[in-house]
């Protein structure tokens, strides 16, 4: 059994054991969908390394006072982030007008209820997992400000948070503006994070120009 399988089984069982809502417990006992499992295996776990604050098949109320379920809810400290894996067949190729309107209404209701919603195409999970990992880290960065290695100094930790929020490489100039330090100091911080194997040089041979999270 792989580390992912071990952690996944423990996480899913813990959700089942702690759930008092019969509807959700029965849904969890049936197991998660293939797309959700592949997202967790190829994207979430390699990028994040744990399943803390992540809740599968999370129940929400819909416009008609019924129940719907998010593939995954990310809720650190009570904030509300939703992730859904959009399969190509039911969500795009075969989507009729009624279901398309229903999908849009659902996303609207989640947004109005304070949810930040992250839809991920299943084909992106299979074809572009590293890009999806960057999206997930940026998504988490909207909620979590303290999930950084404990050995980092204050400015180094804030640099890591900024890198997680961005979906592109980071330049020393924009880091300097963000941290309100000199360009030279910003460059020292970036190179320190490269030495710690947290960041890597995105481009620039003789003089590093941009930096990104280490993949």
Defining key terms:
single chain, 215 residues, alpha+beta, Arc Repressor Mutant, subunit A, four-stranded mixed beta sheet, 6 strands, 53% helix, 17% strand
Mean of residue pLDDT values:
86
Q: How far is the N terminus from the C terminus?
A: 24 Å
**Low-pLDDT segments:** none
Determine the structural class based on helices, strands and strand pairing. Answer: alpha+beta
The helix fraction, in percent, is: 40-55%
Outline the biggest β-sheet.
4 strands, mixed
Helix and strand succession? HHHEEEHHEHHHHHEE
Number of helices: 10
Rg from alpha-carbon coordinates:
20 Å
The portion of residues forming beta strands comes to: 15-25%
The dominant shape is elongated
- Read across the widest sheet, the strand sequence of neighbours is 1-2-3-4
Number of separate strands:
6
What is the count of structural domains? 2
Verbal overview:
The chain has 215 residues and is of the alpha+beta class. It folds into 2 domains: 139 residues, no CATH class; 60 residues, Arc Repressor Mutant, subunit A, CATH 1.10.10.10. Helix content is 53%, strand content 17%. It is built from 10 helices and 6 strands; from the N terminus they run αααβββααβαααααββ. The protein has a 4-stranded mixed beta sheet with strand order 1-2-3-4, with helices on both faces. A two-stranded antiparallel sheet has the order 5-6. β2 and β3 form a beta hairpin. α7 packs across α8. The longest helix has 16 residues. The chain is elongated, with a radius of gyration of 20 Å. The protein starts with a helix and ends with a strand. The mean pLDDT is 86.
């Amino acid at each position: 059994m792989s580390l992912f399988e071990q952690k996944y089984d423990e996480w899913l069982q813990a959700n089942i054991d702690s759930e008092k809502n019969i509807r959700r417990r029965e849904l969890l006992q049936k197991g998660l969908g293939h797309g959700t499992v592949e997202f967790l295996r190829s994207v979430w776990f390699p990028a994040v390394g744990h399943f803390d604050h992540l809740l599968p098949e999370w129940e929400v109320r819909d416009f008609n006072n019924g129940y719907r379920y998010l593939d995954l809810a990310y809720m650190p400290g009570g904030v509300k982030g939703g992730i859904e894996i959009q399969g190509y067949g039911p969500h795009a190729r075969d989507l009729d007008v009624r279901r398309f309107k229903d999908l849009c209404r659902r996303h609207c209701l989640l947004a109005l209820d304070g949810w930040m919603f992250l839809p991920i195409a299943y084909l992106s999970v299979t074809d572009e997992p590293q890009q999806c990992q960057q999206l997930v880290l940026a998504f988490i960065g909207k909620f979590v400000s303290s999930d950084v290695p404990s050995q980092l100094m204050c400015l180094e930790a804030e640099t890591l948070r900024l890198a997680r929020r961005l979906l592109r490489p980071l330049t020393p100039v924009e880091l300097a503006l963000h941290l309100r330090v000199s360009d030279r100091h910003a460059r020292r911080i970036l190179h320190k994070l490269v030495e710690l194997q947290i960041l890597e040089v995105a481009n620039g041979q003789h003089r590093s120009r941009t930096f990104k999270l280490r993949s």
